[in-house]
Fold each of these.
Amino acid sequence: MRLARRPLLLAATALATSSLFAYAFAQTPADSATAAAASPSAAPSPAAIKTTESAASKDYAIIKIGSETIKNSEVLDIWKGLFPGGAAPDFNHFDETIRQNVLRGLVSERLIYQEAIKAGYDKNEEVKKRLAILQKQVVMQAFMDEKAQKLVTEDQLKAAYNEKVAAAKGQEEVRARHILVGSEEDAQAIAEQLKKGADFVKLAKDKSTDKGSGANGGELGWFTKDKMVPEFADAAYKLKKGETSGPVKSAFGYHIIKVEDRRPLQVASYDDMKESLKAEVSNKMIQKYLETMLKTANIKYYSADGREKPFSTSLTPPTAAAGGDAGTVN
């Protein structure tokens, strides 16, 4: 038995329609225009949007299965749960075909549940054990989500941002292209062609085994030294703007690197970084909170023969602990 079947059942019915994919995952105005052209009925008029927004504000029975009622609010909650990170498009803005695809998935789920109850699966010991585990996880997650919000302050976020700004001072980032091949001989041959005036972009498209960057002429964009494997980063940072390297070996193969530009490390604005800062700071604060609980709890750790053993209450990985002493016990 897998608890993950439920969202899969709904997703299979809700996301089978190509127009829904186009609408839900459109990221740019161009993509949105394409989706609307492909399925005009999926793009509601302003009047329709106003009507559905008004309807959505009032909860109502959207489905009845015999004596059982499914509320519109329940449908919307389940719909949002299908999209990680709160990125769900507005369910009420879709046309009837798409909406009924989703509702059929929900109705199918209810019918399966009813049959499972009739068969007595709610009394199955394995099922009850899994439900207890799931309940514990849901309760803990709700508690920790609220705790994380309370532990993080605006001052902490600004302090974390200022640390990043300070750390960026004096650092550079590089914009580069590369051509990746499997052997030193191939890399050397490409280097010779470049010396004779061959076009780097064309060679990257034709020769690079890194098909992702190769399709864009080897373009890697802007990066800092820590974002690349050491051999690649060391070679790239030794090059001046416009210079090209000889063969550089890494675990991926042999690279020919061309540095397009260099600049002082750019730090995004506080507003742009705020959400990522919240995640970073909340993780640190939650770790401190958990370590405090571990240290104040009366924890005993035993070997199989009943002897008490040392137990570390630190959540910091041993390799990163001060002094690197993996045996330290708090």
Amino acid sequence: MTRYLESVIVKIKDLPDDDLAKFIDFFHVNDRRAWLEDASGRVILGEPWAGMTAMERRPERLEKRFEMGEATVLVLKQPEPAIVAMFEIQRDGKPAILCFNWRRGPRINYLPILAQGAIGLVCLSFFLSLWTARRISRPLSELRDKVVKIYQGDLALKLSENGEEEVADVSKAINGLTENLSLHIEGMKQLMANMSHEMRSTVTNIGLSLEITEEAFESVLSMQPAIPERERILRNISQARLELEILENMVASGLLGGKLDLRHEILEFDPLDFSSLCRQVIDRHSNRAAHGGISLSGQVEPGLWIIGDEILLDRLLANILDNAIKYTSFGGQIELALVSGPDFLTISCLNTHPPLTDEQLKCLCLPYYRVEQGQIQGSGLGLYLARRITDLHGGKFTVENDQQGILFSIYLPLPNENQFQLSL
């Protein structure tokens, strides 16, 4: 740069003041300046940057000083870092100094820049990792949620077989598994329905045979009242009738469960006096409860109507009371109540059974589950059918521990006027 300036000085040092002024103006581009000072430092031509005059180029601002050929180069410190090149020339026989000035940018401290870059790189890596993890985990989360639904019994749910190869392979395997399970379960339900249907005929025949036997024995008794084994035979006939009733109920429950699961049952939803149906079911179970030393009471709000299948709703109430009578000890109490709310009919059945565990409450409505295995006769389908019938009528079935025992609650939706009119 100084060689260039020296060559420029050779050409311009003898120029008239006007031409030198034009050169100085021409030199003023961006952050360059040129000006002429006399020996005392007074500016004769041009305009220096602020802080660049002879008076302001004081020693404390001087960072470095170089002698480069005919030029003296000053490197000035902050606040206005700059380089000033000064050449001594003669103007009109008097000494003068031609000054060239370049601004220097501020010193760059690379440490903060590197620190900021490192922080930015870490943040970018973090968000990139988060995005990658989210992209990878999203299909796994969706897969997990759907598998939980399948575990809860929704075997009809199909998983998407698109996406990453590993996830797609797992989805295909689970879909195949649920399909096979569904086929086996449907086959088992069909088998149970067929077996129940066949057993129903057998149970009916046994019942007819028992009635014929009972009538024949009564005929014999009318002719010979003093038969030695009379009491034992009558007791056995009574026990056989009781066992046959239990068996008939089990077969009927199995057949109804199979029909509902296989959707073979044709539902007939009609307007129904539900209050009257509740009283009838309570009356049917009163003798059985009294025979077991159980107090059965009913609080039925009159005049409550519903739209539903009468046979299934009768079975719903009967199963609830059957279960309560089976699991209520001698001297216990059963309370069945029917009340109306704004949108639902509420059926509550409270029996004085000791509290159940959370696991027992959770499994109580599963098919073939019984709290006291082997101690009480039954098929384990009663509460399962009650819940299924409730679901088919758009209701809600709950069971929970109460301070007085076990509380079953059934909520069935009330029909609005339009639904009621359309059903008539």
Amino acid sequence: MSRNRYKIAVGAGILALGISLLAYFAVLRQDNPVWSPGALLNSSVESDHIDGQVFTIMDSSNKMLSKMSRSVTVGDELIRGDGRRYKIKTVNKFDARAEFVGMDRELLAMIDEYDNLALPTAGQTEQTGQQNWKNRPIAVYHTHSAESYIPTDGTESKPYHGGIFAVGDVFAEKLRKKGVKVLHDKTPHEPRDSNAYYRSRRTAADMMKKNPVTLVDVHRDGIPDPEFYTKDVSGANVTQLRLVVGRQNPKMQSNVEFAKRVMASANKIHPGIVKEIFMARGNYNQDLMSTAMLIEVGTHTNSREEAEKGAALFADALPTILGVAGTTPGGGGYGPTSQTPSGWITIAWILGVLILGGGAFLLISSGGWDKARQRLSSFWGQEFSGLGSPAKKPGEENRDKPEGEQ
């Protein structure tokens, strides 16, 4: 084989390999997250949620904004229930500093919208589910299935039988009482390591076959302070919830919009039940659909009974918000088939790999940058030199040549 043919073969091989890998991760393997370079780092961050570990987020005036056991990284964002939005600027060990970036106008508009819509009160919501939901279920599962509540379960972790399942049971039962069909999958996904979300993705992908209107991954936090989540909501002593959205997720924009609507609606029905939205580095399987949610119901030092009450109050909001948003058949806005930027992002990655692969092929087969530029220039010159000129009829191509050249 000549040297030029060898270069061509190598270049073609690199291009074919790049296209094959991208197709495998981004298109064919729907049980894996939509591919992006950030996904290479997501698994370690997603698993770094250690009970007893506390990341504290402070603002510029040294006021505490939030705290959590999941890792906090530069670029993460926090949206509080009052609409104040912050972005993490520095992280020094477990001390994170956030900058106020303004009031979230979209969330404030949603809060105002639900105020004017006069959403049903807590007592009225029992009758709203049947007419809105028809046959589309809410899918509930647990990536960290060992999570438990010390005061009730006697331990923070019960592999394969975590107290978090009981919280999911109460959440699901409250929805069923409202006339909503619920899929509650209790498949364990131990151990709680960097592959937990890959294991739970198989569960979520199976549930997607039932055409759910939303996927809810139920967790709890791991900070030692139970008072951080404890609150009197609608006359009951319950734990508040946090909504978590993955930033390395092509559906992030629609996931965040959905989370804002859920928080605005839930806090309209039960003021203060949703504490905040946190946008963390990771995917959390939320690329599966626009309405995927990760909720944290209290922390491991709260009693499970308080967490169950909080989950039950949160369940009041979901049929209302999804019904108002138009997820029922014939509606628009949310659901597995909602239009989101994810498809275009995947296409953009495919085009990017094709361009890079094509460039590598051209460079290797040409033998250097100068020859590659010459070859590309020659190609464009030949292809577009006659663009815009009228096509010549047969025989005319020799008409303008000297007689000796015809």
